[in-house]
Amino acid sequence: MNSVIAFIVIFGALVFFHELGHFVFAKRAGILCREFAIGMGPKVLAFKKNETQYTLRLLPIGGYVRMAGEDAELMELKPGFRAGLILGQDEKVEKVVLNNKDRYPDLRVIEVAEAELEKELYIKGYEEGEDTLQRFELSEKAVFIEDGVETQLAPWNRQFNSKKLHQRFLTIFAGPAMNFVLAFIVLSIIGMSAGIPVDRAVLGDIVPGDPADQAGLEKGDEVTAISGEEISTWADLTGIVSASPGEEITIDVQRGEETLSFEVTPEERTFEQGDETISQGIIGVYNPRIESPSIFQSIQYGAEQTYFWTVTIFDLLGDLITGQFSIDALAGPVGIYKSTEEVAKAGIYQLMQWGAILSINLGIMNLLPLPALDGGRLLFFGFEALRGKPIDRQKEGMVHFVGFALLMLLMIVVTWNDIQRYFL
């Protein structure tokens, strides 16, 4: 249950902050945001505040901000259609009732002759029993009611595609960017709360019952050599220990004025990497840390770690592109859940770091110039800037549709690999 909760919290945070980036910059640009959704599929929870409906959906495979104009606007009033109008004090139409008109008293029912619902915002028609054509001005926040469901009108100036190129660019870019911001904040909090690791060959906390504890090593021991090989950094220490699972090694340490030697056999730990099973040696020690660092040190640590993991993920992505990793090395929701389950056993700080790494990974993946991803949309904005006019929306939509289908196919393949790896 703890693993399930950890997975839901991490997934929810990653998606929430990603979509929050889109949402905030869309609102700043004046775009009507119809829905802010976490998850996909059927609604589990929904409420509306101001112009936006906030929903929690069943399937934990993403989220979205539905902005006016990204899809074809569904509201249409054709000539001959009968509509009920509710006017406000300024004599502008505030509500347009499309059916079940008997539920709304005091409607002005008209037969529509002409309607312009994007730029000029008017409806022309004949009221019942009259032959005079009348023009009714629409409020910019007018709503259309069909089967009891209200849908707000989206004037052209509130639609995504009406905005300047830089506003659309920032709205899309803000999603992945927010994932990097989240990672930076989380890693800075880790540095502030748990201390900042120092790259010195000095032992930090010792895990009770693990090989280092059993051999007699203590916190504060400075490692000078391992099996005759001189040691000066924490990376040197972990490199040798990791490469020696099940092999006895001699660790020389300086403890105060004493020079001591200990025989330690690293415990073997294994993990899956694609089709390979990787073995590592573990002795159960943590690296030393700066206790109670300053805010500046914590911020610096957060920035350095964000940069480190960004570069590391790009390197792994390069290996995947060049064929050094196979598709089996990729993990989907099932694989991420299983990894989260293992990381959760190590403690809250390791879980927070894992969440930060996933956030950076999500940001990078979304910035890839692939159709249906944020990076693909940014690429089309780049073409628009070079051409001086937008790409045909139908052609762009078809490219994104094909890209989305291929991504869903990849998701199915990766998820099936995860199921085989962990459950079959």
Describe the structure.
By secondary structure, the chain is α+β, with helices and mostly antiparallel strands. Among the domains are: 81-152, no CATH class; 199-287, Roll (Pdz3 Domain); 295-423, no CATH class. Helices cover 41% and strands 27% of the residues. The strands form five sheets. A five-stranded mixed barrel has the order 3-4-7-6-5. A hairpin with a 2-residue loop joins β12 and β13 (258-264). α2 (165-194) runs antiparallel to α7. The longest helix is centred in the C-terminal third of the chain and has 31 residues, at 393-423. Keywords: Hydrolase, Membrane, Metal-binding, Metalloprotease, Protease, Transmembrane, Transmembrane helix, Zinc. It is found in: Membrane. It is a multi-pass membrane protein. It is an enzyme of class 3 (hydrolase). Its main location: membrane.
